[in-house]
Automatic annotation (TrEMBL):
PROSITE patterns: HAMP, HIS_KIN. Its EC number is 2.7.13.3. GO terms for molecular function: phosphorelay sensor kinase activity. SMART domains: HAMP, HATPase_c. Residues 352-404 form the HAMP domain. It is found in: Cell membrane. This is histidine kinase. One of its GO terms (cellular component) is plasma membrane. Its main location: membrane. Coiled coil: none annotated. Pfam families: dCache_1 (PF02743), HAMP (PF00672), HATPase_c (PF02518), His_kinase (PF06580). It catalyses: ATP + protein L-histidine = ADP + protein N-phospho-L-histidine. The chain crosses the membrane at residues 28-49.
């Protein structure tokens, strides 16, 4: 036992040594390929053969069931005709007429005999009346034969032209041997016994015959044989539900050959020409077997119809039957090839994802060993190699930090201090410039008042523009109250109206509680400007802008409507598409900008929607979320951010 364990350990070490002589890339790639391809081949062919075997069993079962169901339907149809015959000799009036005529053998000319004959023949006619597949019904006694006669006295159906010869046939003797049990005949002799009329050269064809011996109820005296000639099409419904199953052919087989062909398919095989086959079928009763006929491998399923020598048989070409299986086999091989190719690609990338990072780590280590401490392993994953590289980077960073602390810390601190000072100066200048411009406008206004000895349109215009500019200098938040936004819009329109004799009217419908809600800065003024420039042009007479705000649940809607010239459908569609795509606009820049800011600030569910018609004006609907405080006020509360003091005074 110890020797076995020792041999196993030596073999284990030897295998590992051999594998270690091969690179990781080749080692992993070959092992992946071997395992995956072996498993794929095994699963593909094992699944195919199991599938083929299961298909073969299901086919045998299905075809046997098909033949069985067809035989049962034909048997049910035969029973219907047997029950129809039973109603004939269960008729007491008919039986009495048969007994009376059998007793008056010599007096066939009497009125009573003719009356009884009419009763019998009319009953025969009634059996076939309305049943299109009953070709002929006759009753043959030892002395006479009765036909189908309708109430008008006309003969229907067929006749037996040679009664003397008929008495010697099985059609007459076999029903007597069965002592009243139904007997079905399918032989070719029917065409030489039953005729449509006495003048026909050819007898009735494509029929089967039902024969039943009839006896007197009291003393079992033999009265005659009831014969029904039935068209084979009466059994055509036996294959109902299998019409589309055309890979094979289904036949009704008798002792003399094929009686009927159900749903014939030329592409499917015919019934095999084998004289011993029917005797074999007759001996077995039912079965399923494979055979070779004219170079074709056939599958034959058959079943005998009870109390007859008639069989239902289904024949199918095995090559056609298994064509789908062969296609699946070919598909499996193609899938196998695809799997092999996919496995090769996956194996290559998986092994590369292991070998390449190791090679990179080795390269970085070598460069770091040469004194290049700024080289780092690129973090490109979450596997163990990445963890190892991260640990190496941490070690290199700590070493680099130690060097920086010793040699560069003071220089870096001075550079950061200078950069910070420059940043503060830039921020202060950005705040001083707007104040300087506002103060300059204020000086110009006072100088104009001095020159005009008081207020004038020019000084008023400068005052309104200064007020408008001061509103734009507001800092500390991205949002203002709706009330402040409306004041901004009013001031803008007052500045614009300085150039018009007929002022543009402004109507505002806002509830006090809505005035305290917060909206983005510079939102209403670009929309007002858009209406003045594009909707009104240079005119102002009769023009009006209406601002209406209202709240619906957690949304605030602001409607700005003008009675300007409006837009055509093409212009509206183009503007809406530009706003939807956030594309660059050569016109309506302010409108597109407002829409973009709203969406960026609140999300895609908010923004601007436009409706307009030529000659009816334009309406812009702004949807915003309800906000009760400024978005940035809470963040900037404290007066100073990042060391730079606000100058909004």
């Amino acid at each position: 036992m110890k020797r076995v364990k020792e041999a196993g350990r030596r073999a284990n070490r030897h295998i590992r040594m051999i594998l270690r002589k091969v690179s990781i890339f080749r080692r992993l790639n070959l092992s992946f390929m071997l395992l995956i391809i072996s498993a794929a081949i095994f699963l593909t062919f094992f699944s195919f053969y199991k599938y083929s075997d299961e298909i073969s069993k299901n086919i045998d079962k299905y075809i046997s069931l098909l033949v069985q169901n067809a035989a049962m339907k034909i048997e049910d149809t035969m029973q219907e005709y047997e029950e129809e015959a039973l109603r004939f000799y269960d008729n007491s009036q008919v039986v009495r007429a048969l007994l009376e005529n059998a007793g008056s053998k010599t007096d066939t000319e009497s009125g009573e005999y003719e009356q009884n004959r009419y009763c019998i023949e009319n009953a025969l006619y009634n059996m076939g009346y309305g049943r299109k597949y009953i070709v002929n019904v006759q009753f043959v006694t030892p002395e006479d034969q009765y036909y189908m006669v309708e109430p008008g006295g006309y003969r229907r159906g067929g006749i037996i032209r040679d009664p003397d010869a008929f008495y010697e046939t099985e059609f007459y003797t076999l029903p007597q041997e069965k002592r009243g049990y139904p007997v079905w005949f399918d032989t070719a002799e029917q065409t030489s016994v039953f005729y449509k009329n006495e003048q026909n050269v050819y007898g009735l064809a494509n029929i089967v015959t039902l024969g039943i011996a009839v006896y007197a109820p009291a003393d079992r005296e033999f009265l005659g044989v009831l014969l029904l000639n039935i068209d084979l099409n009466a059994f055509s419904g036996a294959m109902e539900g299998y019409e589309e199953y055309n890979d094979g052919n289904t036949f009704l087989i008798g002792e003399d050959g094929i009686l009927m062909w159900f749903n014939p398919s030329i592409s499917a095989p015919a019934f095999p020409r084998d004289g011993l086959l029917f005797q074999e079928m007759k001996g077995n009763g039912k079965g399923i077997s494979q055979m070779n006929s004219d170079g074709q491998e056939l599958l034959l399923a058959y079943e005998k119809i009870p109390n007859t020598d008639v069989f239902v048989a289904h024949v199918v070409d095995l090559a056609v039957l298994y064509a789908g299986t062969y296609q699946i086999r070919n598909l499996c091989i193609m899938v196998l090839l695809a799997v092999v190719i996919a496995c090769t690609v996956i194996s290559y990338y998986v092994t590369s994802s292991i070998s390449e990072p190791i090679g990179q780590l080795i390269k970085v280590m070598q460069m770091t060993g040469d004194g290049k401490w700024n080289e780092r392993f690129p973090n490109s994953g979450k596997d163990e190699i990445t963890i190892l590289g991260d640990r190496f980077n941490e070690m290199a960073d700590k070493t680099d930090q130690l060097i920086e602390q010793v040699y560069l810390s003071e220089i870096r601190r001075q550079e950061v201090s200078i950069s910070w000072t420059n940043a503060r100066l830039d921020a202060l200048l950005m705040q001083i410039n707007p104040h300087f411009l506002y103060n300059t406008l204020d000086i110009i206004r006072w100088e104009a008042m001095y020159e005009a000895n008081g207020e004038s349109p020019v000084t008023q215009m400068i005052e309104k523009f200064s007020q408008l500019y001061r509103m734009g200098m507001r800092t500390g938040g991205n949002t203002i109250t709706l009330k402040e936004g409306i004041e901004h819009a009013k001031t803008y329109l007052e500045v614009i109206n300085f150039r018009h004799r007929e002022k543009i009217q402004l109507e505002i419908h806002v509830e006090p509680e809505e005035e305290q809600l917060y909206v983005p800065q510079f939102m209403l003024q670009p929309i007002m400007e858009n209406a003045v420039v594009h909707a009104f042009g240079d005119a102002s007479r009769g023009y009006r802008i209406t601002i209406r705000a209202y709240r619906e649940e957690e949304k605030l809607f602001i409607r700005i409507k003008d009675n300007g010239k409006g837009m055509s459908g093409e212009e509206l569609e183009k503007l809406s598409l530009t706003m939807e795509r956030n594309a660059f606009a050569e016109e309506n820049i302010g409108l597109v900008n407002v829409n973009q800011r709203i969406r960026l600030f609140y999300g895609e569910g908010y923004g601007i929607r436009i409706t307009s018609r030529i000659g009816e004006g334009t309406e812009i609907i702004i949807s915003l979320p309800v906000r009760n405080c400024s978005e940035n006020m809470e963040k900037n509360r404290g007066g100073e951010q990042d060391g730079i003091q606000s100058m909004d005074r």
